[in-house]
Amino acid sequence: MQWGELRRQARTIESELDVKLTALSKVGSSFIGGSVNAHHSQTSQSSINSDYGDLCKDIEDLLQQLTQVNDKMSDVVSSIDQGNISQQHTAKRHREILFDYMQDFRRMRANYTSARNREELLTSTHRIQNAGTSDKPPDATRLLLEEQQSLLHTDKMLLDRLAAASAIRSALRSQHHILKTTTGNLLNLRARFPIVNKVLSHISWRKKRDTVIIGSVIGCCFLFLLIYLFH
């Protein structure tokens, strides 16, 4: 696939991701902001959760497509005949954009999951207290909330570690392609050196041959001149 076509595909997917991430942010903000709470109907909650799930699936598909396009761009850049400095910078920029999208998506999803879990816990506790069937002491709810916050904090730390690992992987992949391109150029130059040496040797041989021919012609002319003078 040509470089221009890959760039067009990358820009198209990035535009779609911008739209999807904006929509996901609005859904998450409405939930976190309290538009969905215990007083809303179950139908409203199910509708928002369904919309959120559909958006997440679409974004995951787009991220996978953009990753594949970036891999193809990296393959083009790493090729000996087609890679150049401008394409290397362009491919690196698209990888950085992909990484930013992944970071934003993980952050939005983590925030939404945290808010939804907290809302479900509070709603469940409120229903139990209203029904008068709670056998747990008042501190039980507080302990559950603290445990949930601890789990969410751990989950956030894991996401940060995964993001750092993804950044390292992207950097290593970029260095790999740069080294591969450099190695290819060196091999190409090494392959050309024997041809250059052969051409130089051929030129040197022709120069020596011309010198011998000219010397022979001059010698013959001088010999004919002597014969003519002393005949």
What does this structure look like?
With 231 residues, the protein is mostly helical. It has a domain at 1-33 and 46-121: Methane Monooxygenase Hydroxylase, Chain G, domain 1, CATH 1.20.58. The chain has helices at residues 3-32, 42-78, 85-131, 138-229. Helix 1 runs antiparallel to helix 2 (42-78), helix 1 (3-32) runs parallel beside helix 3 and helix 3 (85-131) runs antiparallel to helix 4. The longest helix has 92 residues, at 138-229. It is rod-shaped and about 135 Å long. The N and C termini lie far apart (82 Å).
Order of secondary-structure elements? HHHH
Rounded mean pLDDT score: 75
Q: What would CATH call the class of the domain at 1-33 and 46-121?
A: Mainly Alpha
The biggest sheet amounts to:
none
User: Which residues form runs of ≥5 with pLDDT under 50?
Assistant: 35-41
Count of strand segments: 0
- Distance between the terminal alpha carbons, to the nearest Å? 82 Å
Question: Which descriptor suits the 3D outline?
Answer: rod-shaped
Gyration radius over CA: 36 Å
Strand content: under 5%
CATH fold name of the domain at 1-33 and 46-121: Methane Monooxygenase Hydroxylase, Chain G, domain 1
Q: Number of DSSP helices?
A: 4
Helix content: over 70%
Structural class: mainly alpha
CATH architecture of the domain at 1-33 and 46-121: Up-down Bundle
